[in-house]
Amino acid sequence: MQAVVLAAGKGTRLRPLTETKPKGLVEVNGKPILTHCFEQLTDLGAEELLVVIGYRGDDVVEHYGDSFGDVPITYARQEEQLGLAHALNTVEPHVTDDFMLMLGDNIFRANVEDVVRRQRESRVDAAFLVEEVPESEASRYGVCNTNDYGKIVEVVEKPDDPPSNLVMTGFYTFSPAIFHATRLVQPSSRGEYELSDAIDLLIRSGRTIDAVELDGWRIDVGYPEDRAEAERRLQQRAEQTTSRV
């Protein structure tokens, strides 16, 4: 599969770290966040990285060039940061088949390979990792509403009154059908074209959608304290690996 990485945001909540560099180049445990993303995606077999850049995007291009190891990188620019669905639309001309999508401010040590396997084996139109978070945090994410059988029937972006505490994480797989939905999305109350709204359109149109429960951990590096927690967990993991050798 190709792999899309969305890395156009300004990272205002990470200031002052993002005043002189894009969010994706902020280091976590000695590596830029984007390097953590690229390593995981190439381990999953990504044949091409499609990277959406915006704020200080030239810094990203200068840092990585046209490849990451042996995997080519194609860049697309989101001139205005108008939401994740809007960002995804910028890579549509480059996508040839089913693809992975990772938000470029997330660090995963989780079962992302299960999502890829579900896409390849079941040929669904979308699959994504979900996790339960404290109810007080659910409004930060795209929240999944489920029926009595546990099936996801609706996805709502950052609701004031979340219908559940089951949320989407930052890793997805899609068929090209997602682009039909992203083109239909209307601006939300935040003035953005939301990816969760596009996924909700897929659900309502009867497309095949699978959710995979997260096994492991992931951190959305949105605030300095998130960066510190990600570093703590990565260092802890490295120590555990060393102790087993």
Q: Identify the CATH class.
A: Alpha Beta
How many helical stretches? 7
Please outline the major beta sheet. 8 strands, mixed
The sequence of SSEs as H and E is EEEHEHEEHEEHEEEEHHEEH
What fraction of residues sit in β-strands? 25-35%
CATH topology: Spore Coat Polysaccharide Biosynthesis Protein SpsA, Chain A
CATH superfamily: Spore Coat Polysaccharide Biosynthesis Protein SpsA, Chain A
Between the first and last Cα atoms, what is the distance in angstroms?
33 Å
Rg, Cα atoms, Å: 17 Å
The CATH architecture classification is: Alpha-Beta Complex
Describe the structure.
A hairpin with a 2-residue loop joins strand 5 and strand 6. This protein has 245 residues and is an alpha/beta fold. Strands 5-6-4-1-7-12-9-13 form an eight-stranded mixed β-sheet. The two termini are 33 Å apart. It has a single domain (2-235), classed as Spore Coat Polysaccharide Biosynthesis Protein SpsA, Chain A (Alpha-Beta Complex), CATH 3.90.550. It is globular, with a radius of gyration of 17 Å. The chain has seven helices and 14 strands.
